[in-house]
Every structure is written in C-alpha cells, then in structure tokens.
Amino acid sequence: MDIKHLKAFAFDLDGTLSDSIADLAGAANRMRAALGMPPLDQARIQSHVGDGIASLVHRALTDERDGAADPALWEQGYTLFVTEYAAHLCDHTRLYPGVLDGLQLLKTLQLPLAVVTNKSERLAVPLLQKLGIADLFSLVIGGDTLTEKKPSGLPVRHAAAVMGVEASQLGMVGDSVNDVKAARAAGAVAVAVSYGYEDVATLEADVVVDSLAQLYDLMKNG
Description:
Rossmann fold
C-alpha cells in the first residue's frame, strides 16, 4: 500500500516503541510474591500483555488469558502492581533499535505524532519522559484517557481529530491485533512492526515495516 497520503502517525508504546516486558514482568512477579504466589516465566507474562494494566493484573493473578481474579484479590494486586511498576518503570525498558532515529526523521516531514496505548496514561507519560522521546509527540492517549481503549477505534479517531487530520490520513503503528483492529474501526491505515510481541504474520496489517526509519522511506520514496 502507498502511504504517501498519510499526514500523521499514532504509535503503540509497549512492543512498538519500547521493549517493556522485563519491567512489567518484574512488577507482576513482585506483586505475586507479596501475595504468596510463585513467580511466572517472563514469556507467560508477555502473553498476558496488551489490554492495559487492569487486564494484566487479572491475568498475572490467574495465569489465564481470560482469567478474572476475585475482586478483593484483584484490588489488592492492582495496588501492589502499580506501586511496584511505577517505582521500576524504566529499570530495563529500552527503545527498540531505530525508534529514536525513525521518529526524528518523521518529524522532519512536519508530521504530527501521537502515542495511543492501552497502558494507563499516568504510567505512559512518565515512561516516555524517561525514554527521552516525550517531546516528539503532540499527545498521549492511554487506556484510561477516554471511555474506550483499543481495539475500539475511539482513541485512534480522537488522535486524528486532535492532530487535525482525517482518520484515513492517519497511520496507526503497532505490534498487536488490538492495534490493527483499532485502526480498522477508525478507518485509519494499520501499520505493523515486525519486531513486536505478536506474530506479525497473523495481524493482516495494511503495511509491515521492520523499523520506524522504513516508514520515513515509504513516505519519501514510496
């Protein structure tokens, strides 16, 4: 697909801009330890990521993708998780190779950029600051910013409206089925990165890139 018509981009955070699994897993296992539970493998916790902190806590407590913990246990676990994660937000989290260069290249095209993540806004904003890329984005939409989160199209439509473009002129860049579904629901272009947490071959995105710099190349050269 030719994407030269795009006038703005929105990016998922975990699995797209940054590799956050080690810190998410650390917080989840410290939560479990405080509740007398054994640790989970990092790969298991990675399989539970993608639908926001509230869902991750349910899944980390039950070790089931569709698990629902007892409400009292979940509330206790949620408080523990957020406290632990906020205190160790960027111990091991790093930008993926080429992310900073790619974002800076896109900015040279005078394109507005946003973050649309299911991570809570109060955690996403400080993480972006710690990673040194917060100033590159016009806005940050977290999973708790609006009344709906991805895979709803609302956050993507909202990002487009704030940045002053039509949804069809926005590229939603992510690594998960939620990102593709949100793009489709909003009428945006679904762009998937090949290096993220989910198998890109299963996502059926409009465009697949191996780096954010490749987006710049596609915008410049097609």
